[in-house]
Amino acid sequence: DDVWLELPGVYASSGQRHISLPPEELPLQAQQDWGLEFWIYIEDAPTGAHRGLFFKGDVDRLGGQRTPSAWLAPDSNKVALRVSTDKGLDIGADTDTPLPVKKWTHLQFGFHNLSDASDVKYLLTLDVDGARDATLEIFDQVTWNDGPLQLFRDPDRRGVRGFIADIKVRARAPSREHAQKNYQAADRDKPDLHRPDVEATDALVPMEDPWAVALASTENCASFNERLANYEAASPINKDASRIAAELLLFGAERLATGPKFCEDADAPPPLTGEALRKGVSYLERAVAMGDAAASRMLASLTLAGFVSTETKDLKAIAPPHTMGPVVASRLGDAVHTNNTERAVQLLYQAAMHGDARACLALSNRYRFGRGTSQSQEAAAWYAKCAAAIAKEEFHTPGEQTFVELNRITDETVADGSVDDNQRGDEDAQLQAQMQRAEEGDIDACVASGDLLYWGARGFQRDHVRARRFFKVAADADHAHARCLYASMLLRGEGGDTDHAEAVRQYEVAASAGSAKALNGLGYEYFYGNHLPKNSTKAYGYFAEAARLDADGDSNFNAAHCLAHGIGVEKNVKEAARLYERAATRHGHFDAAFEIALVKHGGSGRTGRDVNRAREFFEACARAGWAARDVRAGFDAYLRGDAGRALLWYAEAAETGTDVAAANAAWLLDRDSDVRALVGNTMPLAIRFHRLASTLDGGGDGYAALGDAVLHGALVVPPGVDEGRAVSDDTISRLLETRHARALSYYSRAAQKGSARG
Questions:
Q1: Following CA atoms 123, 2, 164, 166 in sequence, which dihedral angle do they give, to the nearest 10 degrees?
Q2: Which letter, b or e, does each residue of 634-647 get, where b requires 16 or more Cβ atoms within 10 Å of its Cβ?
Q3: Long-range contacts at 483-486 (CB < 8 A, ≥ 24 apart)
Q4: Which ranges of the chain have pLDDT less than 50?
Q5: Dist. CA 368–CA 378, nearest whole Å
Q6: DSSP H or E segment with residue 686
């Protein structure tokens, strides 16, 4: 076998992300004969611009050198094969046959180094579906480069929108015979991708400019029923309107980038009912048919939870059983109706292709464990990277930074009433007392209250004006940390005008008291030259001194950034990677986690690729963004008494691998009467979420619940079920007979994970 490197799995590409393979990962650093092979599914007709398939080079360091690279041609889907030679950077030709759209096609590229020959110096071949399609002969001396191989796009242009699957780097360029054999072997495991079937819904008669009317009703915080009616009216002609109508019905609010839209002056949504659930699903199906990514992902979540079935129009997860036999566990991650798993995964692929971050994280979790997909750590890291990149964009949008709140609902916290302690914002007596003390000038209360209002935490809405006022009161009282918080808002213009001069004054006073955060702030001002004269050497000096104190993540990150790029200090990529990792692991710094993930994913700085560690950091970034907001939205729905909608929030977040979401979904199914009335027989769905939670961090209560179910004969988990092995009636009988011992093993694992129920 000549496979040098293999990246199994289906990779959905919106054309904006790439996988980078360092030259050390390629056969003889790609300077001898080698091959590249993959399946491709092209979504779009020609766009008028080149779309990258792969690019070998480093634009920042090597300019336009590109031996070898390939694109789709601007006005066709022909493949443009290119290399760099001593006569030019862009040498090559286009193939004669365009690649088909919306169809899986197998491509094999061969790269032949013939530099010692007298005539042809380099040979590129392309085999399409096992047949030789193009041969490109280069007669000039090829220019080699030591840049990475970037798959899916080039550094300057979008890549192909669609899917690439089962990537192989081979240690030799394929001959015609080998190409045919490789294709025959690949065709046996050809990716299966098709458009999910969705049913049309009855069209409504649109009013004049209904979309504008709907948007205005959201902006003006109209009543829930008015907003719903407006989006329903716009839904026949607008996919966003159809999706938002579904969001109102299913989640009780428009799902904005900053979280669900709730208006203080508007009426609260009515609790979720079976009719609202059915109607919401129909609007999602309409939006999916029109190509909406978020609707595809939401419909996938509902399908996995059993609220959508290809077999029945009963939208309850499981109809009440005729007999009370045990639930026989299916594969982890399978849909409640197991035949719907494939349909749900296809929906996730469609959403991911359009760049939906939640779908990307869900697919990362599936590829990590091989749940409904093949097991591929490369694909898991790729999808986690896509999710993290979108979370990064949100994190750097003013007002959209997320405060991570993962509130776990348990029997104990519900029984003693602590489940909502300090969680209801303006309606919480303790928090309101703290706010009152802040208004009266209590310094500690000012800092704590300002922090809550800055992040919009514990049930409060963001209020940067009030947060800035509280921080100023504490800063004027010589609270060093408050000086830094106040200065940070001043230099960003949060909650008021930008004032760099006052920010510098506050930092200088706090720095004289030894504040690492203040030293970092002064470095920031020297770095950008907003008030202090721009001086990158001084900036790095402040960053480095603050990083030496190791009291916060920002200073470690900023020092690492200077080292990584040689700004104000000699470039040192290895030391930069160390500081990035320290900022991420010790201080939970978002940008540092993203940068060290890029380093480990691409193997830059000669550190070697580590896709598992990269995935962990990418996932941490994604969960610090919108994923955490979804979990908090579920908890807020629970606090409002809308347990049905809390279940839907948690069910979707659980698919991304968030253990608290899976555990809370299971708790609601076990304990909440409204959820039990909505779902019907909750046991199969509860067990599904308990099993998901038990495989993740903090899954002790999940193991205990599974132990209870096994002990009482309500659950059978056959050996090898996650590998898809068939289960006989005799096996089920034997497992029931030994259920006490099997339950004990679950309780033991629960105790090991710290569960009191274990």
A1: 170
A2: bbbbbbbebbbbbb
A3: 483/507, 483/509, 483/510, 483/515, 483/518, 484/510, 484/515, 484/517, 484/518, 484/521, 485/447, 485/450, 485/451, 485/454
A4: 198-207, 312-323
A5: 9
A6: helix 683-694
* pLDDT, tens digit (0-9, with 9 covering 90-100), for 582-591: 999 999 999 9
SS3 sequence of 446-465: HHHHHHHHHHCCCCCCCCHH
pLDDT of the residue at 313 = 45
Q: What is the pTM of this model?
A: 0.89
Which of 95-110 are b and which e, b meaning 16 or more Cβ less than 10 Å from the residue's Cβ? beebbeeeebebbbbb
Structure tokens at 687: 């067990």
CA distance 80 to 59: 19
**Cβ within 8 Å of residue 498, ≥6 positions away:** 490, 491, 492
DSSP annotation string for 50-95: -EEEEEES-HHHHTT--SSEEEE-TTSS-EEEEEEETTEEEEEEE-
Contact 577, 599 (CB under 8 A): yes
pLDDT (tens digit per residue) in 46-101 = 999 999 999 999 988 888 899 999 999 999 999 999 999 999 999 999 998 999 99
Classify strands 715-716 and 327-328 as parallel, antiparallel or unpaired. parallel
Preceding peptide of 68 cis, ω within 30°? yes
Are 42 and 383 in contact, with CB atoms under 8 Å apart? Answer: no
The DSSP annotation for 499-555 comes to -HHHHHHHHHHHHHTT-HHHHHHHHHHHHHTSSSPP-HHHHHHHHHHHHHHT--HHH
